Amino acid sequence: MTKLRSTVLLALVVSLSVACGGEDLEPPRRNPALLAAVEDFMTSDLARKPFKEFTDWEWDRLFLFDMDDASYERIDALVGERVSPLRAFGGLFVYFRGDKVVRVELLEEGGYCEGQYTTAAYVRKGYSCWLADDAFTPFPP
After folding, report:
1. Are 106 and 29 in contact (CB under 8 A)?
2. Running along the chain, 141 residues long, what does each successive block of 10 average in pLDDT?
3. What is this structure's pTM?
4. Does residue 95 contact residue 118 with C-beta atoms inside 8 Å?
5. Contact between 94 and 67 (Cβ < 8 Å)
């Protein structure tokens, strides 16, 4: 009986430390201004616009995840640190500068194609995935 209690107690401690381990991480921020800017672009006369013009922070690489079908463990493994929210839908944008995550955002509307984007990414009209990049790299399965 003592061994069972010890096992249960150990499992509880491990669970709590995993659950509480990311408390000091800033949760993904929602960016309604970015989404509004993209929506405004969609009603403009332009066919496409560089995505860099929609952001005002420094980044050189972007990981985009479709949270509707996401595995949070897979996201964190691909990024290399815990960035996934507890619950979400839409697109999770993880911006890097070099190998460091500099910003994590959640856009809750739109169509998202998972993969890695560069600063050459652009917003385009008429596609379910509104973000495109000629240097796009899909994530491994």
Report:
1. yes
2. 36 31 57 87 92 94 90 92 82 95 88 94 88 94 82
3. 0.77
4. no
5. no
